[in-house]
Design brief:
This protein is mainly beta. 5% of the residues lie in helices and 49% in strands. Strands 2, 4, 5, 6, 9, 10 and 11 form a seven-stranded mixed beta sheet that branches.
Length: 127
């Protein structure tokens, strides 16, 4: 399964961005629709952290506390996509953002539990 992420860019604090991630390749439909999907981010010098995780049915979402109430994650299993709407962005949100597909229907915060990763898209928030 290949994941292609896009939508990053430079925005001022308080602005918005929408990240999108599309899965393709053999068995991508079954792999994506049966498993959780997440957005992770990694800032310079910091470990990769899970920003938001949505379950395979979309009925459960787990948030990083720092983004709760500002970001919205959504998935469309028919299109094999997951999106991240980011509002009221802050400079501390600056990072490379990665989409990933878990190896389980309800994901985790550990990158080790994810089998497919997108290439990353850079989000830069200026103050």
């Amino acid at each position: 399964v290949q994941l292609q992420a896009c939508g990053g860019g430079l925005v001022q604090a308080g602005g918005s961005l929408r990240l999108s991630c599309a899965a393709s390749g053999r068995a991508s439909g079954r792999t994506v629709s049966n498993n959780a999907m997440s957005w992770f981010r990694q800032a310079n010098g910091k470990e990769r952290e899970a920003v938001a995780t949505v379950s395979w049915k979309g009925d459960k979402v787990v948030w990083l506390d720092a983004v709760k109430g500002r970001f919205i994650i959504s998935r469309d299993n028919a299109k094999n996509t997951v999106n991240l709407q980011m509002d009221n962005l802050k400079p501390e949100d600056t990072a490379v953002y990665y989409c990933a597909v878990a190896r389980r229907p309800y994901g985790s915060r550990s990158p080790a539990d994810y089998g497919s990763w997108g290439q990353g898209t850079l989000v830069t928030v200026s103050s």
